[in-house]
Each structure stands twice: as structure tokens, then as C-alpha cells.
Amino acid sequence: MASWQDVERLALALPGARTGLSHRGDPAIEVGRHPFARLRWDDDGRELLQYWSMDLDSAAALADRSDTFVRIDTFKVKASIWARLDRLDETELGELLEESHRARRGVRR
């Protein structure tokens, strides 16, 4: 079970990462000019992680995990995904943050 404190610890270890605030004032971790991790909350007050992916098929890949991944917006070149932090373990959280860091700083695999 992960929390925003885990996000900060893992994300801030990535190159160029720094704390910031979203345009609405929510805590975020940024790289370059872009957030790659943003704290949000669901209607019940549970912490959600917003992260980004270059995988435009994320919705299909995550469809069977709707208890964890609650929103997926697919744009022209990236997807924005919201995940319940309390449903992620540290390994998966680290992988999502690394993927988002790559997507937001513009480095492809």
C-alpha cells in the first residue's frame, strides 16, 4: 500500500525531479517544465496518483484493474492515468513513476 510520501521518496530520486504544485495548487513532482506525478483525491478522500504514459493503449491494458486505475485520458501522444495509491505496491509505483518521468521529460524507450 503506497502513499504520497512514497511517491515523493521514489520520484525525487529520479534525475531532474523536484517538488512543485499543479496549476490548481495540488502537490506535484516535476521534471523540466512538466509535472510527472500529481496528488489528487477521490470523492472518498483516498489519495490518487496522476501520472503520464506514452502507451496510448493504456485503457485497454488496464481495463481489468478498474479497482486501481480509475481514470485514463488518452491524448495525441500521451495518456494521463489516475491510480489509487493504496492499491499500488512499491515496485509497481516505482515503475509507474519511471514511465511517467520518461514520458514527461520527452525521453522515449
TL;DR?
The chain has a single domain (4-105), classed as Aspartate Aminotransferase, domain 1. It is built from 3 helices and 6 strands.
Give an overview of the whole structure.
There is one protein chain. With 109 residues, the chain is α+β, with helices and mostly antiparallel strands. The chain has a single domain, classed as Aspartate Aminotransferase, domain 1. It is 27% helix and 33% strand. It is built from 3 helices and 6 strands; from the N terminus they run H-E-E-E-E-H-E-E-H. It has helices at 4-11, 58-62, 90-105; strands at 18-21, 27-31, 34-41, 47-53, 69-74, 79-84. A 6-stranded antiparallel β-sheet has the order 1-2-3-4-6-5. A hairpin with a 5-residue loop joins strand 3 and strand 4 (47-53). Helix 1 (4-11) packs across helix 3.
The termini sit apart by 28 Å
What is the level 1 CATH name? Answer: Alpha Beta
Question: Class by helix and strand content?
Answer: alpha+beta
- Estimated helix fraction: 25-40%
- Please state the overall shape, judged from the principal axes of the Cα atoms: globular
Low-confidence stretches: none
Give the number of helices. 3
Element order: H for helix, E for strand: HEEEEHEEH
Rg from C-alpha positions?
Answer: 13 Å
Specify the biggest β-sheet. Answer: 6 strands, antiparallel
**What is the number of beta strands?**
6
Tell me which CATH architecture applies here.
Alpha-Beta Complex
Q: What fraction of the residues are assigned to beta strands by DSSP?
A: 25-35%
How many domains would you count in the coordinates? 1
Mean pLDDT: 92
Q: Record the strand order, biggest sheet.
A: 1-2-3-4-6-5
What CATH calls the topology is Aspartate Aminotransferase, domain 1
